[in-house]
Amino acid sequence: MPTPRNKQGKPASDIPTLIELGAELADVRREAGRLQQEVATAAGISRSTLHTIERGGAGVRWEKVMAVAEALGLEPKWVEKK
């Protein structure tokens, strides 16, 4: 079975919050040893959409981001900015 690569690429946007969120989702996926295709299938999205999310891409529907989080066993938590 293939293992996830820890490949860094250029962010898909210049929005720090999206870049950070995508990086965190990618880190959780890699730490769990899961491939993009596996998580994308579980979330009901394409692998290219997951790639866009992990690269901090703008224009992805929030429902798809939440589906990825759920597929990874995560739930959102809002915290006050410091």
TrEMBL record:
<dbReference type="Pfam" id="PF13560">
    <property type="entry name" value="HTH_31"/>
</dbReference>
<dbReference type="GO" id="GO:0003677">
    <property type="term" value="F:DNA binding"/>
</dbReference>
<feature type="domain" description="HTH cro/C1-type">
    <location>
        <begin position="25"/>
        <end position="79"/>
    </location>
</feature>
<protein>
    <submittedName>
        <fullName>Helix-turn-helix domain-containing protein</fullName>
    </submittedName>
</protein>
<dbReference type="InterPro" id="IPR001387">
    <property type="entry name" value="Cro/C1-type_HTH"/>
</dbReference>
<dbReference type="InterPro" id="IPR010982">
    <property type="entry name" value="Lambda_DNA-bd_dom_sf"/>
</dbReference>
